[in-house]
Write a structure and sequence with these properties.
Largest sheet: 8 strands, parallel, barrel
Distance between the termini: 21 Å
Pfam families: Alpha-amylase (PF00128)
Family: Belongs to the glycosyl hydrolase 13 family.
GO biological process, one term: oligosaccharide catabolic process
GO molecular function, one term: alpha-amylase activity
CATH topology of the largest domain: TIM Barrel
CATH class of the largest domain: Alpha Beta
Protein name: Alpha-glucosidase
Strand content: 5-15%
Amino acid sequence: MTGPWWREAVTYEVYVRSFADSDGDGLGDLPGLRSRLPYLAGLGVDAVWVTPFYPSPDHDAGYDVTEHRAVDPRLGTLADVDGLIGDAHRLGLRVLVDLVLNHVSSEHQWFVSARAAGPGSAERARFHVRPGLGPGRAEPPTNWPSIFGGSAWAPFGDGDWYLHLFDTEQPDLRHEHPDVAADALATIRFWLDRGVDGVRFDAAGSLSKDPGYPDLPEGWRPGDPAPYSDRNEVHEIYRRWARELASYPGDRLGVAETWGGPEVLAPYLRPDELGQAFAMDPLYWPLRAQLWRDGVDALLAATGRHGRLPAWVHGSHDVRRAADRWGPHGARAVLLMMLALPGAVYLYAGDELGLPEVTLADEAIRDPVFRRSGGAERGRDGARVPLPWTGESVPYGFGPTGSTPWLPQPTDWGEVSVARQRDDPGSALALTRAALALRGEWWRDRPAELTWRDAPAECLAFRRGHRGPTCLVNLGDVPVDWRPYGRRLLLASMPKVEEKLPARSAAWLA
């Protein structure tokens, strides 16, 4: 392996509430995850990213935190964290924790004190607080929208309003405040001291806001530059945190949850900042060959300027399932393509099973996006339904027999369970295991430069460097002959491939 361990690592995102429930209360927990670590080691991933397990009233499934240096008793204990890290390390797995430092829960003691203290108080200075506009200061201070829908401002009830880029129960912190800066650093140190191998920084671009709080211009659309996202000032925060990560042994990783194109993520990867920033744009790319080729080139160029590689994101808890976004066959093809590209890859729990997006009844949805949009947006819970491990009925091995998962599982969930796929050579699980096993031999640590080969319409063919295997991706509607690209078929995303590579599939060829 060349460079730090994370340079081309495959990291598996565990949405802890939906992974494995050890005690039957319906919520996945740390002991449940710990019991399934051998499955992840057998899958062949390098690291596990664990979503928040901190104390929370769960208005946003754990991303509304009341205490960043503790464990929600419903999900385990600090001893469970220590045991999880120890077991993972013995199995050759690294562990990343998810730190939510942009905001806290409205039940966090700081915000409880701020609500009680009144306008102009020192307690409110830790948050973004502005007087309202209009008669009685009854209108929001700016036209900033919440990412979850509606205004990003909520009233205290005394003329002051507080900023919440997400839900009203998630007030944003002012990182310019010395208390906030010191507490964030203490949190990072706390988890590094416990032995975690890296930190995923939630809402990475939102930590710095324009102190003038200007209105968004007329015609602004989501994705346009905004005075509360990816500002130059945010990078001083990450430089400070990067120095802390570098002070620990073992190449501790800092990865930014960035949303945007190459120009957005590249600044986070400067030599004195973070090791990785999520390449999220591909999540939304349709299966069009030229679009993928141009996009891959742009991301490689942007990250390469700082000596880094992309962190390709195949799926996450914030978007629809891969099998829904690209179709079941397309998701398998994109997986092989991403695993062949230079860089790291992030896989979302359940996508190795090809799980479909689940359509939930209105009354079952917990995501605040659904509520804040008035039902116009279904939210993200369709990708968060607890995993099926085995069995013929609910909870399909997610929890003890007779328990009820926090989100309802489909009645046919057993058909796509780990148990059903484990011995099926044509399953999504079998493909993922085979790809991860072969990746180390054929792709990992090869040259970062791509050599594009001539390919039929709506196909991509590339090598890393000028020798070695070829990845052929057929995004078109007709089969293509793979034999001009290699003498041997190492692996294909579709079973029983002969001379022709089917539509919406990929192959590794030597």
